[in-house]
């Protein structure tokens, strides 16, 4: 079996919440390709990194109180070695997986930079809002819709500054505006309801 199909099956069978599952991974992969279209990146590294970056969150692999990026790195090295992924590319995938979070510094390779940017961008705008609200009650930090709204506000304020590439910044601005429009609408409609 080709490694791409194998990685898709791993994510599909992992018990991943849809917010972190295959569709999220594909969005990260395709957006990374789009953002880096002016460069020549290793597509195998990009694909493997996109599919494996959140494995440490998945029920099959998660360990309580272990940062999911570090856990994902550990899971990734084992999976890639089992599937005979090219040995010289494994360190590049691990760098991208370990450093994909907005609170991390970008990894050393271009692949790592664009995986991180794409993952950050998938937390903003309409897609980011949909993901946040789908996590209500399924994530320890988002137990209520109000917490999802607060997280959306925090993301809109903080995440655009975490994006470093020119192409990523353009998308971050647009997606931040989408998020702020939504939040303004919620605030306005909630205030109208309270006046009745």
TrEMBL record:
<dbReference type="InterPro" id="IPR006674">
    <property type="entry name" value="HD_domain"/>
</dbReference>
<protein>
    <submittedName>
        <fullName>Putative HD superfamily hydrolase</fullName>
    </submittedName>
</protein>
<keyword id="KW-0378">Hydrolase</keyword>
<dbReference type="GO" id="GO:0016787">
    <property type="term" value="F:hydrolase activity"/>
</dbReference>
<feature type="domain" description="HD/PDEase">
    <location>
        <begin position="17"/>
        <end position="133"/>
    </location>
</feature>
<dbReference type="Pfam" id="PF01966">
    <property type="entry name" value="HD"/>
</dbReference>
<dbReference type="InterPro" id="IPR003607">
    <property type="entry name" value="HD/PDEase_dom"/>
</dbReference>
């Amino acid at each position: 079996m080709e490694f791409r199909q194998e990685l898709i099956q791993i994510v599909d069978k992992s018990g991943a919440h849809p917010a972190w599952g295959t569709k999220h991974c594909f969005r990260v992969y395709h957006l990374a390709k789009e953002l880096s279209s002016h460069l020549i990146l290793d597509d195998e590294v990009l694909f493997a990194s996109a599919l494996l970056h959140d494995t440490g969150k998945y029920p099959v692999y998660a360990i309580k109180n272990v940062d999911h990026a570090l856990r994902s790195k550990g899971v990734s090295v084992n999976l890639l070695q089992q599937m005979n992924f090219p040995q010289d590319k494994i360190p590049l995938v691990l760098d991208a997986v370990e450093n994909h979070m907005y609170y991390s510094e970008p990894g050393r390779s271009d692949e790592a930079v664009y995986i991180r940017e794409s993952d950050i961008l998938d937390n903003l705008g309409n897609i980011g809002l949909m993901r946040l609200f789908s996590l209500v009650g399924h994530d320890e930090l988002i137990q209520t819709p109000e917490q999802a709204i607060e997280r959306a506000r925090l993301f809109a304020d903080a995440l655009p500054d975490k994006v470093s590439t020119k192409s990523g910044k353009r998308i971050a601005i647009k997606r931040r505006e989408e998020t702020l429009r939504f939040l303004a609408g919620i605030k306005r409609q909630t205030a109208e309801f309270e006046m009745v």
